[in-house]
Amino acid sequence: MTTTSPLPPHAGRDSTFALLDAPPATHAIATRVLDRGQCGPDDAEAPAYRLFLAVPRAAPPPGGWPILYMLDGNAAFDFLTPAMLEGVPGLIVAGIGYDTEKQFARSQRIRDYSPPAAPGAPLRPDPHHPERLAGGAEVFVARLTGPIRAAAEAGLAVDGTRRALWGHSFGGLCSLYAACTRPGAFARHAVISPSVWWDTPLVEALVAQARFDRHSTRFYMAMGDSEKRTGSAGPPPDGPSPVTMAVFAAVAAKPGVAAATEVYPGAVHIAALPASIPAALALAAA
What we know:
The chain is of the alpha/beta class and about 290 residues long. It has a single domain (about 20-285), classed as Alpha/Beta hydrolase fold, catalytic domain (Rossmann fold, 3-Layer(aba) Sandwich). About 30% of the residues lie in helices and about 25% in strands. It contains ten helices and ten strands. Strands 1-2-4-3-7-8-9-10 form an eight-stranded mixed sheet, with helices on both faces. The chain has a two-stranded antiparallel sheet with strand order 5-6. Helix 8 (about 200-210) links the parallel strand 8 and strand 9. The longest helix has 17 residues, at about 135-155. The chain is globular. The relative contact order is 0.15. InterPro entries: AB_hydrolase_fold (IPR029058), Esterase-like (IPR000801), Siderophore_Hydrolase_D (IPR052558). GO terms for molecular function: hydrolase activity. Belongs to the esterase D family. Keywords: Hydrolase. It comes from Ruixingdingia sedimenti.
């Protein structure tokens, strides 16, 4: 699977938010900045969280709508199209982004989406970029499943058994972390090009310790076959990362997991983001 969507440079570009000006016939589109006092972040210098919502225009079913949460919400909603949403008329999509005009809030997303060294551990310098702090996923996921979720779902008829979480790159790492540490918080996870390289032993340990046998959890895990780290030298690899594919296999082998894995031919790292959205929408809507 490849994509013809215009791709941003690695550092990100300004968001277009085109859906706000040209919404689909099936969904109402809205965005707002979430209250920092309730939803965080604690750092006053960090951008507040911004919520993007696509809500079905039809009346909800008796049990409520399924909902897909998308991390890096600015970029996710930039790549969502009216046609994609019209293909899932009964699905709420909630993008959790940042109060910035960029598609990616680079430093803050690394802080929010990277796992702590151990449960309850404080933030630490990013091992790859020591000028940044990392390891905030435990705090962020608690907020995502608490006050951020409450703000996103306020006034909406949501089926609490059909929540899904999508993430790409560090967002994919966060989706995997949430699945491993809070099984049952989301019934379905789309884990796209997760940044396993960031701390491979930590990721492997998270997966090894995770238990899904008390929950029925569906995974869609995918990456391109030409991905390499931003700024790394040399040509794109000929095939997907063996380390990441091994993590995918370990997740799929867990009791209680139903998993589908896909490799996007010819896709570099950023191209896996838009390539994954149709399958993530289908996963969440099923």
